[in-house]
Each structure stands twice: as structure tokens, then as C-alpha cells.
Amino acid sequence: MNDNDVKDATKKQTNKKDKQTNKKDKQSKKKSSKQDKINSNKQTENVIKLDDGDNNEKQERKRQFREEITKDKSKTKAKSKKRKKKIKEKHDDSSDVDKTNDRKAETLALQYLQQWKKFKNVWSFQKVRQVWLLRNMYDTDMVDDDYFEILLEYIEPLKGLAKITTLEKAEKLLKEQEESESEDESPQQDEEEDGDKRVKLTDKQMDRVRQVIQILV
After folding, report:
1. Residue 159 has pLDDT above 80, yes or no
2. Are 206 and 177 in contact (CB under 8 A)?
3. Are the C-beta atoms of 212 and 155 separated by less than 8 Å?
4. Does the pTM exceed 0.70?
């Protein structure tokens, strides 16, 4: 074997080693690239998981916030209902008390009038009873015919302011009633002109008004 053959053999071996080295480098690089890709995918998955965790936490906070608002609204509605119920109960109680007081005032006033008629020796003047009688004398439900006959006797000797105001009220009622009967306009026109709707008295009530005027004039 000459020198050239030795050189060629050496060169071939060197090239073979280089190829093997290059192949190993390529394999190593390929393996490293694959591992980097795997690591990158894992990092991405971890980021996604973190994002999902954050989103879940936000959603949970939102859910809790909505629950708190719902509870507050429910409490507010419950308090409002209780408040309205108390006001209604208070109003009902107040109405019942007023009705009871009205009935009591009516009973006491009529007893006062009857005592004046039958037991004048023990009777004593009470202004509050007289005011009630003069205010309600035209109400046929509160003061029936028998009591009204006694009341006519009671008011006959009236003097001073009580007589003046009672007579003025009776004359005003009579005038309003006569004007109402003589008007030709419709009720709607009357309301537009006068602003207040007049209460129409019955014939029986008007008869009482005339009797009061006749006695006090």
C-alpha cells in the first residue's frame, strides 16, 4: 500500500466520522427542538390554566356579589312590607278609635239633650255637647225626629254667638239649596264655576233647616 492509498483511507475514515458526528448533531438538535416544543406547550397549558383559574375566581366573585345584592333587595322588600303593614295597622287602629269616639260623642250628646228635657234640676251646661248637637242637627241618622223636636226647644232660648252662627248656617244652607234648585246649567258646569260640589239636602233635612230659621229669627 503506497502513501496515496493510506491518505485516501484516512480521508474516508475522517469523512465517515464527520458524517456520523453531523448525524448525531442533527439528531441531538431535533431531539432538543422537540423537547423545547413540549416545554413550550406545557408552559402554554399552564398559562391557560392560570387564566382559567383567574376567570373562575372572577366568576365566583361576581356570583357572590349578585347573591349579596339579591339578599339586600329581599331584606329591603321585607322591611318595606313590614313598614306598610305597620302603617296600615296604625291607620286601621286610628280609624277604629275615631269611630268609637264618634259613637261615644253621639251617645253623650243625646243623653245630654234628654237630661235637659227631663231632669233640668240636675242638668248642667256642657259646651262640647251643645256644639255636637248644633253641628249634627240636620243629620237624620244621628239625630232622629224625636231628638230633633227636643233640640228645637233647646235652641229656642239660644243667645249670643251660638244663636248667630246657628242662624247663619241655616240661612246659608237654605240659600244654597234654593240656588241649586233654580239653576239651569248642568252639574258639570256648576262644578266648573263653583269649584266645589254642593251637597244636596233631602226634603226632610230642608224642613229642619226652615224650622230652625223660624225659631231663631
Report:
1. yes
2. yes
3. yes
4. no
